[in-house]
Structure formats: structure tokens, C-alpha cells
Amino acid sequence: MVRGVTAPCRDRPLQCIRVPARRPALRSAKHFDLRRHLPHLLRRAHFEAEALFASMSDDGATSRQMALLVAVHQMPGASQSQVAQAIGLDLNTCSDLVARTVAKGYLVRRRSETDRRTFCLDLTETGREVMAASVAVAPRYQARLAARLDKDEREQLTALLRKMLGFDE
């Protein structure tokens, strides 16, 4: 009998029972170590990185806004959809991020001349200054973020994350 499928009962042929699928044995929650659980570690590292960026940012820009500004600088006039894909955000999240960044005066959003449904993005002068300041601080930010790692470990971590995200394919 295949587990996880409905099977007829021998003594009641017209009735069916559900045979539960076997699940891998779970270690008890008492012994589950979040400090070795990759999703938890990635989330914690993300929060630590965000807090560190905020402490190093003089202009109040967030690390997501920095990524947005760098992407727009590298792809002037790109659509919100193109920028969202470049920085790894879904379109709704990117749209909210763009609205907050426009409100800060770092970006201008304009309708595309070829497709009126599409918004294109460009940096303002203030946005260029904030982006340049963020890029200038990036090496120090990265060094502080990975301060507990030696050079080889930093390179290995970066390479493994790039591989995990499929950036090197």
C-alpha cells in the first residue's frame, strides 16, 4: 500500500480510509537549534546588516534605498519592473520603496513615453549625492558587517551566497 493515498478497507470495501504519508522523523523542538537553522541565520544576519547600515547612514537612507539608487544609477530611465528585478524585490514591494524614495526627494518617477502604463525612474541631484555617499561608505560597512570573519571567510561567504542565489550561473 502506498502511503499518503486513499485505500479501500478490507472489511468495508465501499468505504475508504486515508493512510497518512510518512513524514521524516523530526527531532523534538527541545533539541532544535535555531543557531544552526539556515533560514533563521539568514534572517538574523539580515536584521544585523539593516541595523548596522542605519547606524552608518547619515542621510537616513536604508540599505534597500541604497540598492534602489545604485540600480537606477546603473540603469537610468529603467522601469520600476526592471529595477525590481535587478534588486530582487517583487513589484509591489518595489513600488512602495520607490514611493518612499520619491518622497525623500531622491528619485523622480515619470510615465514612459512608449508605454503610458509604465513608470520610469531617474535619480535627482540629491539622489545622486545620497547614492554616492552610500557607495563611498560601502567598503567600511561591509568590513564592519563581516568583522568576525577573516578575508578568506568573507570571500567564501560571499561566494556561497552568490551560488545559493544563482548569481554565478
Helices and strands in order:
Blueprint: E1 6-8, E2 16-18, H1 38-56, H2 63-74, H3 80-87, H4 91-103, E3 107-111, E4 119-123, H5 125-145, H6 151-164
Antiparallel strand pairs: 1-2, 3-4
Helix pairs in contact: 1-5, 2-3, 2-5, 3-4
Structure summarized in a few sentences:
By secondary structure, this protein is mainly alpha-helical. It is built from six helices and four strands, in the order ββααααββαα. The strands form two sheets. The chain has a two-stranded antiparallel sheet with strand order 1-2.
Task: Give a structural overview.
With 169 residues, the protein is mainly alpha-helical. Helix content is 51%, strand content 9%. It contains six helices and four strands. A two-stranded antiparallel sheet has the order 1-2. A two-stranded antiparallel sheet has the order 3-4. A hairpin with a 7-residue loop joins strand 1 and strand 2. Helix 1 packs across helix 5, helix 2 crosses helix 3 and helix 2 crosses helix 5. The model has no long low-confidence stretch (mean pLDDT 87).
Residue runs with pLDDT of under 50 for 5 or more positions: none
Span between termini = 42 Å
Count the helices. How many? 6
How would you spell out the order of helices and strands?
EEHHHHEEHH
> Helical residue percent?
40-55%
- The helix-and-strand class reads mainly alpha
Identify the quaternary structure here: single chain
| Global outline | globular
Give short descriptive properties of this protein.
4 strands, two-stranded antiparallel sheet, 169 residues, mainly alpha
